[in-house]
Write a structure and sequence with these properties.
InterPro entries: CDP-OH_P_trans (IPR000462), CDP-OH_PTrfase_TM_dom (IPR043130), CDP_ALCOHOL_P_TRANSF_CS (IPR048254)
Number of strands: 0
CATH class: Mainly Alpha
CATH architecture: Up-down Bundle
Distance between the termini: 29 Å
Structural class: mainly alpha
Protein name: Phosphatidylglycerophosphate synthase
Radius of gyration: 17 Å
CATH superfamily: CDP-alcohol phosphotransferase transmembrane (TM) domain
Transmembrane segments: 21-45, 83-103, 109-135, 147-167, 173-194
Order of helices and strands: HHHHHHHH
Keywords: Membrane, Transferase, Transmembrane, Transmembrane helix
Helix content: over 70%
Number of helices: 8
Organism: Thiothrix eikelboomii
Largest sheet: none
């Protein structure tokens, strides 16, 4: 729900950073890969309970995730880049609850499993809708710059990162945040299924 607000707010700073990276010779795909590799370091940091360092890594990953799309729009949008971006995003999202599970298995493992399960619901409904929207040549009026149909929901990227920030700031409350956000993810999945059922009429 908050993605559009964040995109509008950060558009100009991201544009300036993206232009500088282009001058330095960086491509969108290189920034995507760099962001993902940096994001993966959150796993050992969380496992060893270095929550503030993990928070910094998470925020840096998200900054680079925004920059890669801006660079692509300034240079060339490609299917390869769009595919790489979305796959690595979903892998990164699941890395965070896994890290908390490793940090404290007895307290966090079940909540982490439930949260990752809910990510499967949001991710699969999101991508399945995009597949059939492309088949029907539909375009998103909300996110026309995306390389595929971007269906919004209750739990988009901004909400996910806000929850990750809260988890890192208050790690003893991880289970509460995880179960609460998993509930919202599952509700978002149900709403996306309903949207698809209404739109994809044979």
């Amino acid at each position: 729900m908050l993605d559009r607000i964040l995109l509008t707010t950060t558009q100009q700073p991201q544009l300036r950073l993206a232009k500088q990276l282009i001058i330095w010779g960086w491509t969108a795909n290189q920034v995507t890969l760099l962001g993902f590799l940096i994001g993966l370091t959150a796993l050992p940091l969380l496992a060893f309970e270095q929550y503030y360092f993990a928070l910094g890594v998470i925020l840096l990953n998200r900054l680079l995730d925004g920059l890669d799309g801006t660079i692509a729009r300034l240079t060339r949008i490609s299917d390869r880049g769009g595919f790489l971006d979305i796959v690595l995003d979903f892998l990164f999202y699941s890395t965070i609850p896994l890290g908390f599970a490793l940090a404290n298995p007895s307290e966090n493992a079940l909540a982490a499993a439930v949260l990752i399960y809910s990510f499967v619901g949001t991710g699969s409904s999101f991508l399945a809708f995009a597949i059939f929207a492309a088949k029907r040549q539909l375009s998103s009026p909300v996110y026309p710059h995306k390389s595929f149909y971007y269906l919004g929901g209750l739990t988009e990227a901004t909400e996910t990162i806000l929850v990750f920030v809260l988890m890192c700031l208050f790690p003893t409350w991880f289970s509460v945040f995880a179960y609460g956000f998993a509930s919202l993810c599952l509700l978002s999945t149900v709403l996306r299924i309903y949207t698809a059922w209404k739109n994809f009429v044979d």
